């Protein structure tokens, strides 16, 4: 293990004294640490399965235990240290927010010769993986198109709501892009619009724009996009000093109408502290009067003209037509959008709104996090799930899948289908708990499974899992003939788990608010032991589980 800076290491201590276990936020100030903080001792522990408290699945690489000079102890998974080291480490990243050119796919029009990044609206809504693919395309390539979005007024707001929040401006929560009799913006005419970004006169600028086509029967009016990061990168390669001028010259962007006056002084090309392209603001209609010396103005206009000419190069201009029901989502601080002129022989009507990349990135991260969790559960079903299930005629996975299918066939609410599907996840070894129930010791698999699932699911799912063993003991106490119907293995585990409840215990269980759901799951549990039953695989339940995850 390389030497690590002590304040960095202590600042990242994952223990419950240093971080709230519910949200991961730090419970101390950096000034709370002593001035002479040092590592008193450190030990690398061997390979074992960890549950690292970072919201992941743990690792197989052991951990580093550190004793600090002030007596505090910290425990760091080696897998986490390898990826989160100060220099980036193996698989680490210095930036990490996905906003700079380093995390983008810079493109030319030819890169989309085989088609645009797109999806059908119905699939986007129904399938979390499809939604993640669309949002990832916006994040990495700067745009995506949803097809078949209902062509009704205000639907663009519903599209924005699938990943974030509408950014309200002086144009309102949405705006109509069509010919207006008294336009306050050239966008509301039939004139051609050259490549530009919107609202550069705002700080912060809306970072996403959505345009939903309600009608496009006019001749002309095709849409266009230019990758502003690519254009800026070309300028940097061909004219480095011109690039530098545009990154350091604040430009006054101004908008005025009868009710609004906005101004933001920002460079045409924004870079981060490491010099990587992070933002492009480009709108010739909104540039006010730049002040400076003659030399400074000459340098700026030479660079400005060079950059503008690059954005107009045919190889950088991606042109396509938005038809009725198409909704374009694009990055407004990266992509420049354009429009060809159109005739008044038909109607062209788009509705648009603004949103922000942080909400999209958040939604995408949550989708990825949920997908990783579902992958981990799926691996348990496919791996250990193939093993025998307490001497029954089915495997563990078959038993749980049957229970989920029985709940679904009964028309149960989604949370009950999930609970029935996952009720015995605590039996899995390794990631959860050793299985010694059939050796005469209660492994408390209902509690173990519920605690593990609580990372991603609320009590509506975990409570029936936690209570399904108690529900068996309850039913054996209060329902005549129930115990006689138990399988041999279930009868054995009943005795190990405490046997039927006493009258007082049964009354207390019945009063529990989750008792009814737990009993329902228990009944499906007992029925789900049919050899060779035709049941769907785990993939069938993924969308349902994804919708329930928090």
Share of residues in strands? 15-25%
Low-confidence stretches: 48-60, 430-435
Radius of gyration, Cα only, in angstroms? Answer: 30 Å
CATH C-level class of the largest domain is Alpha Beta
Give an overview in words:
The chain has 550 residues and is α+β, with helices and mostly antiparallel strands. The chain has three domains: 79 residues, NE0471 N-terminal domain-like, CATH 3.30.2020.30; 255 residues, Clavaminate synthase-like (Double-stranded beta-helix); 166 residues, Hypothetical protein af1432. It is 36% helix and 16% strand. The chain has a six-stranded mixed β-sheet with strand order 4-5-15-8-17-6. The protein has a four-stranded antiparallel β-sheet with strand order 7-16-9-14. Strands 1-2-3 form a three-stranded antiparallel β-sheet. The radius of gyration is 30 Å and the shape is globular. About 3% of the residues have low confidence.
What's this, in brief?
The protein has helices spanning 6-11, 78-84, 121-126, 128-141, 155-161, 228-238, 240-248, 294-311, 357-382, 396-409, 414-422, 445-453, 459-478, 488-496, 503-510, 515-527, 538-548, and strands at 39-45, 63-68, 73-77, 118-120, 143-147, 175-177, 193-196, 208-216, 223-227, 251-256, 261-266, 269-271, 277-280, 317-320, 327-331, 335-339, 348-355. It has 550 residues and is α+β, with helices and mostly antiparallel strands. The protein has three domains: 6-84, NE0471 N-terminal domain-like; 102-148 and 156-363, Clavaminate synthase-like (Double-stranded beta-helix, 4-Layer Sandwich); 383-548, Hypothetical protein af1432, CATH 1.10.3210.10.
């Amino acid at each position: 293990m390389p030497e690590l800076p002590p304040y960095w290491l202590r600042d990242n201590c994952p223990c419950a004294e240093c971080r709230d276990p519910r949200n991961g936020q730090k419970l101390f100030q950096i000034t709370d640490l002593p001035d002479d903080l040092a590592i008193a001792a450190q030990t690398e522990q061997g390979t074992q399965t960890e549950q690292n408290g970072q919201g992941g699945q743990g690792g197989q690489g052991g951990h580093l235990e550190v004793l600090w000079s002030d007596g505090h102890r910290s425990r760091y998974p080696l897998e986490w240290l390898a990826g989160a080291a100060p220099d980036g480490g193996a698989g680490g990243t210095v930036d990490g927010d996905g906003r700079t050119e380093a995390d983008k796919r810079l493109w030319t029009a030819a890169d989309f010769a085989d088609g645009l990044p797109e999806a059908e609206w119905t699939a986007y809504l129904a399938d979390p993986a499809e939604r993640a693919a669309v949002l990832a395309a916006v994040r990495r390539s700067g745009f995506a198109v949803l097809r078949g979005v209902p062509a009704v007024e205000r639907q663009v707001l519903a599209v924005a709501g699938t990943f974030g929040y509408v950014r309200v401006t002086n144009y309102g929560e949405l705006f109509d892009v069509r010919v207006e009799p008294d336009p306050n913006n050239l966008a509301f005419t039939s004139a051609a619009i050259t490549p530009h970004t919107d609202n550069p006169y705002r700080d912060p600028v809306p970072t996403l724009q959505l345009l939903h086509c309600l009608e496009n029967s006019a001749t002309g009016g095709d849409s266009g996009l230019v990758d502003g990061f690519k254009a800026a990168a070309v300028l940097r390669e061909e004219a480095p000093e011109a690039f530098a001028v545009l990154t350091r010259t604040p430009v006054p962007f101004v908008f005025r109408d009868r009710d609004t006056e906005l101004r933001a002084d920002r460079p045409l090309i924004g870079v981060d502290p490491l010099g990587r392209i992070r933002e492009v603001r480009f709108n010739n209609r909104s540039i006010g009067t730049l002040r400076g010396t003659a030399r400074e103005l000459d340098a700026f206009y030479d660079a400005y003209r060079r950059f503008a000419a690059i954005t107009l190069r045919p190889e950088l201009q991606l042109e396509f037509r938005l038809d009725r029901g198409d909704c374009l989502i694009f990055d407004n601080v990266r992509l420049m959008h354009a429009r060809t002129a159109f005739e008044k022989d038909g109607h062209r009507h788009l509705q648009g709104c603004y949103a922000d990349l942080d909400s999209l990135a958040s939604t995408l991260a949550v989708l990825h996090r949920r997908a990783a969790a579902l992958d981990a559960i799926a691996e348990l079903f496919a791996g250990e799930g193939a093993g025998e299930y307490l001497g029954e005629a089915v495997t563990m996975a078959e038993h749980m899948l049957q229970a989920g299918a029985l709940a679904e066939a009964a028309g149960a609410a989604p949370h009950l289908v999930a609970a029935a599907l996952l009720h015995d996840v605590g039996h899995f070894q390794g990631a959860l708990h050793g299985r010694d129930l059939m050796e005469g010791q209660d492994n408390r698999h209902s509690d173990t499974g519920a605690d593990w699932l609580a990372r991603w699911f609320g009590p509506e799912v975990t409570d029936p899992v936690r209570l399904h063993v108690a529900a068996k003991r309850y039913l054996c106490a209060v329902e005549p003939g129930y115990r006689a119907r138990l399988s041999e293995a279930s009868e054995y585990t009943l005795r190990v788990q405490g046997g039927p409840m006493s009258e007082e215990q049964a009354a207390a269980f019945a009063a529990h608010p989750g008792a009814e759901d737990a009993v329902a799951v228990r009944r499906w549990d007992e029925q789900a032991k049919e050899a060779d039953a035709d049941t769907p695989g785990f993939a069938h339940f993924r969308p349902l589980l994804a919708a329930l995850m928090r």
